TrEMBL record:
Transmembrane spans: none
PANTHER family with a match to the protein in the record: PDGF- AND VEGF-RECEPTOR RELATED, ISOFORM J (PTHR24416:SF600), TYROSINE-PROTEIN KINASE RECEPTOR (PTHR24416)
Domain of life: Eukaryota
Name under which the protein is recorded: Megakaryocyte-associated tyrosine kinase
Keywords: Kinase, Transferase
Length: 266
């Protein structure tokens, strides 16, 4: 969900498998969601997890987001994703975290269904607007994500490489975080991120970027970079720098410059 654009699938009316053990949440409880949902458009994403828009005839929503592992996923990735689904099924809802609607697990695959709140993330929001957000609005965005991160931490969840592209914005301009991971799976998630063709180096804490180590404290660094993004109106930290260049800057205690919209008092 990193991009507004979506790629239509040729077999857009194909159905997700119907033989599965299901975990229901919220208004979806007691509904056989798998028998009433069709994939419509694949959202632009990277890595082994696919994100799709899907239509449903169930009463709680007409459009949902479904994610599952691609055909090229490894056995380890499949098992990790299944474990993620199992953990998410018992996490309570929060106003600033994308809501889980349903989880379906078959013998091999796991499908995770989330509410559809639009596909505009904060990064794209600033890229596609001609007016700049007010300081109070920027602070509101920061407070929304702060509340989300406190909630996740209290429930032993993390958000490796938190960034503005990982925060969706509703039509009421409420921020909702997605791509969260339970603490016991976060290290595996980080290992996957570090193996990507494009590593989110600018958002990774020094211990993660330099040594591949991760803990809940690493999220504090990522959150700081996220705040820099907010007050820079979605600018890219360490723009045009390679992974090695960013690592050298971080190791050399080079810090990002103060955003122009962020006063010294703030």
């Amino acid at each position: 969900m990193n991009n507004i654009s979506a790629t239509n699938r040729s077999d857009a009316t194909s159905h997700v498998g119907t033989s599965a053990h299901s975990h229901h949440r919220g208004q979806g409880q007691g509904v056989n969601l798998l028998g009433n949902i069709s994939l419509t458009s694949r959202l632009t994403s990277t890595g082994s997890i696919e994100y799709w828009l899907a239509s449903t005839r169930c009463t709680f929503n007409s459009t949902v987001i479904v994610r599952f592992m691609s055909e090229n996923a490894t056995v380890c990735e499949l098992l990790t994703f299944r474990a993620l689904g199992k953990n998410l099924s018992v996490l309570n809802d929060h106003d600033n975290v994308v809501k889980l609607l349903h989880i379906a697990v078959s013998e091999v695959h796991c499908y995770i269904y989330n509410e559809y709140v639009g596909i505009t993330n904060l990064k794209n929001y600033w890229m596609n607007t001609t007016s700049r957000s007010s300081t109070s609005q920027l602070i509101k965005f920061a407070v929304d994500v702060t509340d989300a991160m406190i909630f996740l931490n209290n429930n032993k969840y993390n958000h490796p490489a938190l960034a503005s592209r990982k925060v969706l914005l509703t039509d009421k301009e409420v921020c909702k975080v997605y791509d969260i991971w339970p603490s016991d799976l976060s290290q595996r998630r980080v290992e996957d991120l570090l193996q990507k063709e494009i590593v989110p180096s600018a958002w990774l804490a020094p211990e993660t970027l330099l040594y591949g180590e991760y803990s809940e404290k690493s999220d504090v660094w990522s959150f700081g970079i996220f705040l820099w993004e907010i007050f820079s109106y979605g600018a890219t930290p360490y723009k045009n720098c390679s992974r090695e260049e960013i690592a050298n800057k971080v190791e050399g205690l080079h810090r990002l410059s103060q955003p122009s919209s962020c006063s010294s008092e703030m």
